[in-house]
Design goal:
Number of domains: 1
Structural class: alpha/beta
Strand order of the largest sheet: 3-2-1-4-5
Strand content: 5-15%
CATH superfamily: 5'-nuclease
CATH architecture: 3-Layer(aba) Sandwich
Number of helices: 7
């Protein structure tokens, strides 16, 4: 499965956000083990760095980004993706860009804690708990 991770999942791991950390860390582990192909939207990387730098500091943030970039494939954001995202009429343009980047990168789904924000999605949308449950059936 090619799963694009929303930034909230990544930040749940980096900032050890409770109670979300456990499922998010399980999903990271699944990427690390090769059970999932993890994708991140190109814009997610810069946003993660900005937020993580504020809470973790510049050095720690860069260290985490190096690890993340080694684990995940980046879904590019092109001019066409930005234009197509406008046509989706998602309530949040950032989510629309993420969706179009995922579709362009042949993602099979998106994992996010904000599933309601993707109600117009053409892709399957999973909450972290849903995806963890699927992985547990595939890899007991």
């Amino acid at each position: 499965m090619r799963i694009l991770f929303d930034k909230n999942i990544v930040l749940d791991v980096l900032e050890e956000r409770s109670p979300y950390h456990t499922d998010a860390a399980t999903l990271f582990s699944a990427v690390d083990r090769g059970w999932l192909t993890g994708l991140l939207c190109a814009t997610t990387i810069t946003t993660i760095h900005y937020i993580a730098r504020q809470t973790l500091g510049a050095a720690k943030s860069r260290e985490h980004l190096r690890k993340i970039l080694g684990m995940f494939t980046i879904a590019p954001v092109t001019h066409a993706i930005m234009v197509d995202a406008l046509e989706l009429r998602f309530p949040d343009y950032e989510d629309a860009v993420l969706h179009e980047a995922a579709a362009s990168a042949d993602a099979t789904a998106i994992v996010t804690r904000n599933t309601k924000d993707f109600h117009r999605s053409r892709l399957r949308i999973y909450s972290p708990a849903e995806l963890v449950a699927i992985l547990r059936t595939l890899h007991p």
